[in-house]
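Entry for the shared binder. Reason: the reviewer on the internal report wants the predicted structure included alongside the sequence.
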Amino acid sequence: MNSNLIITIGRQYGSAGRHIGEELANKLGIKFYNNDLIKLAAEKSGMAHHVLGEADEKATNSLLYTLAMGSSFWGGNAGVAFDMPINDKLFITQSDIIKELANEGPAVFIGRCADYVLRDYPNLIKVFIYAPLEFRCQHVAELHDVKPEKAKDIIIKTDKRRANYYNYYTGQKWGKLENFDLAIDSARLGIEPTADMLCQYVEFYKAHCMK
């Protein structure tokens, strides 16, 4: 088993989890993976990038396929079947890529059930970033230039989609505290100070807990 330090970040939409993860990776001088996982999955699978982008972090909507598969996703990679829904092909392909990248060197991964995919890695730090709804509405409104009411609607729908995706592919509950080493309210400190705090945690881990 590889001994690279891996950090996974789950996040509520609008909590700035992606920005914090990117800032953390920059400060630590390690790789950062987010949307580029879709590009890598497209290259590996031969499927169109825009098609995979539409399926990213969305659970399959095929009830019959879900019933046929049962809980097999929780038990491991069963191979990419020809008639498998795009969402499931993407999940399996991205999971393989996440493992390959984790084996290559230290990295920060955003979303994509990476905390579950890499659950057996010895030096895995699992983080969940959240924030009050008011803070997230303001952040999303500024980020996408929309009204706060529209931002709230986007947040609710995106979080629901992420929860369905995580719950479906892992058999666990999205955002459950027991699944993470750290859960941080990003509204308390802001993006860079939160990344600085995570850096301190990582350095302490490396000094005292690294396996």
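Summary line for the report: The first helix runs from residue 17 to 28.
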